[in-house]
Amino acid sequence: MRKFKNPMLVLFGLALVFTSCGDQKKGNSGALTSNAAEKVYVAPGEHDEFYAFVSGGFSGQLSVYGLPSGRLFKVIPVFSQDAEKAWGYNEETKPMLNTSFGFVPWDDSHHPDISQTNGELDGRYVFINGNNTPRIAKIDLTVFETTEIIEIPNSAGNHSSSFVTENTEYVVAGTRFSVPVPQRDMPINEYKGNFKGALTFISVDPEDGGMDIKFQLMMPGFDYDLSHPGRGKSHGWFFFTTYNSEEASTLLEVNASQNDKDFIAAVNWKKIEEYVNNGGGTKMPSNYAHNVYNEETHTATSTMEKEVLVVNPTDVPGAVFFLPTPKSPHGCDVDPSGEYIVGNGKLSADLTVHSFTKMLEAIEGKKYDGDAYGIPILKFEDVLAGTVSQPGLGPLHTEFDGQGNAYTTFFISSEVVKWKLGTWEVVDRQPCFYSVGHLMIPGGNSRKPFGKYVLAMNKITKDRYLPTGPEVTQSAQLYDISGEKMELLLDFPTVGEPHYAAGIAADIVKERSKKIFDLKENKHEYGITSDADVRVERNGMEVHIYMSMIRSHFNPDNIEGIKVGDKVYFHVTNMEQDYDVPHGVSIIGANTSELLIMPGQTETFVWEPKQPGVWPFYCTDFCSALHQEMQGYVRVSPASSNIDLSWSLGE
Ligand code: RUQ
Ligand code: CUA
């Protein structure tokens, strides 16, 4: 019989105790005051106070909710194809999902983060990571669309991502799985000492937001789990939790739980930036996709990049240090002042808080406790600010309200615990239903949190909603944190598994929201700006239809001369210049989704007719009283026929 001590088994046993029905009773709505309902009620026609951008986890997308109402406004397609918006289905956006592995139509999206200026949220962009095929995406908040995706080479399980520095100088992507760098065929059990963990710093252009990999820090082969930037006094540093400092490649639930302490890696990125700007680092051959959506051409391009700049941490003395942190830490959270770095050891009874000031002193005094692969390890006692003792079981993530309080989630004891920075005393706890992962306070990852609410994102809902078969909805819970005690206000279901969220005052974003695309500025290769340009062109077996749409017709709406075997491109421009008047289009038998085209925009789908006949197409978005009249026909003749191309409207 195999004998090993499995710490997670012990914890799961406890989890069952904690989420038994005793807790369920407490959570029943009878416990809520009617006051709670008022606090989340946003009257018809009124707007919410905050936007919450909630990751979709295995949906690969990003959902937009209003807080406090919990109303869902939009699912922004990011890494996964989305037929509703033709994302990854139309010709314009297919390149966005290109990678070095080819077209990858899905990912696992975890940690959205909003761009910052001077440590405060500026509402320009949201960044989010794709875990599985490592990518970082940028969503432009004037249009709420993904406009850039960059693949991360030498990375696998892109999890300690995508957090931004105080002025959005960088968005960071850290590898969860260490891998051979460069990738090669080698025995798995030679992991130790041979696999590497890449921490990637992607620069963001202050003017146009363009992303570019500035450098990759090639770290020892640990698992880099989460990260957060320094801010204020610690601006210029970045902190990453690690687990599996044992460098195990098998049965990690046991083998990566051996060391009493793993590390938080403290990275002085300013120092490395300087080193790189002075010609430091090694250019390594590579192959990764950089996909950019151009809003004037309404079209994405994908470029394969061939090189990445790699930095060995031991080549930049004084740039990287390890802070011992108990028991496989998960969350790595920095308070609004930049002084405290909270490391949540999943298997630890206490919460560990490091002090940035003490860390600098320890570095100054060169008080090391040995090194790991040449990277100095600081002494635990020298960097420790304090511990929150026995606050709960299975700590995962911490956020801050800007009033000196921290809020930590506990997966196993299924609760949010509020504690005080500096005195480390627990001041309140509220149960979550059930097994909370991340939590989010609007602006919580910045110098100036908005406070007011905390949103808990739960892994398990069991009896909280009407059953929907074996798969029940994931869920978020909203708590009022304006008083000394937290108050549960609302449960609402989420799309996919929400891992993290980013919240911002709606006022910062909504004024900048675009209403239409200017038709005169449309530079789409196959776009048209007036009905005079409507036409159909044949080029061998390719047919290009330059079509317009406006309430309530297509131009042309009768097309003849198409033959079986043709590849027919519908390039459709929405001529509307009014807010909130998209049109859709689709044709019978097309092996792709509909198009949903915004005013002033052009999109393309391809149709390969397989049978002679007269085939209808129609508008898919109810746009006017005569929406049902918005339809047309394509006549398809046998391949051998010699019917000329012709097109018309109203003849
Ligand atoms: S991780 S809880 Cu990406 Cu903590 Cu999900
Ligand atoms: Cu256009 Cu319906």
Automatic annotation (TrEMBL):
Keywords noted in UniProt: Copper, Metal-binding, Oxidoreductase
Pfam families: nos_propeller
InterPro entries: Copper_CuA, Cupredoxin, N2O_reductase_N, Nitrous_oxide_Rdtase_Sec-dep, Nos_propeller, NosZ/Cyto_c_oxidase_sub2, WD40/YVTN_repeat-like_dom_sf
Transport found in the keyword field: no
Cellular compartments per GO CC: cell envelope
Compartment(s) of residence: Cell envelope
GO terms of molecular function: copper ion binding; nitrous-oxide reductase activity
Annotated EC: 1.7.2.4
Domain of life per record: Bacteria
Primary localization class, coarse: other
SUPFAM superfamilies per UniProt: Cupredoxins, Nitrous oxide reductase, N-terminal domain
PANTHER family: CYTOCHROME C OXIDASE SUBUNIT II, NITROUS-OXIDE REDUCTASE
Protein name in UniProt: Sec-dependent nitrous-oxide reductase
